[in-house]
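Hey, resending since the last one bounced:
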Amino acid sequence: MPSTRRRPNPETKKKDVVWFALNEDRPLFAFAGIWTTFNGDRGTKSKPIPGPHQVYGFLTTSPNEIVAPIHPKAMPVILTTDEERDVWMRAPWMRPSRCSGRCLTM
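The structure tokens again:
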């Protein structure tokens, strides 16, 4: 998913809202994620919505030193270059799966 900045926890009630960007120019980056078709029910038990549903999830990793003080459990895997995005989208799985430790410049 492309972005230029992110807010780690939009549900926070804190007065100080923290946003992360790669730098002051806010260049484009992407969150590494996966999507698939889910063929079960979604929604509540009383109002289930039958599938198929397109579902998406972000991949996360341990937070770096910038993110850890705000979100100590995890941070999204960030793809910062055209090459990283291309590898993520087109390469056989074993190559992009090794990217998660290297693509974290946020």
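Confidence is low (pLDDT under 50) at residues 100-106.

Sorry for the duplicate.
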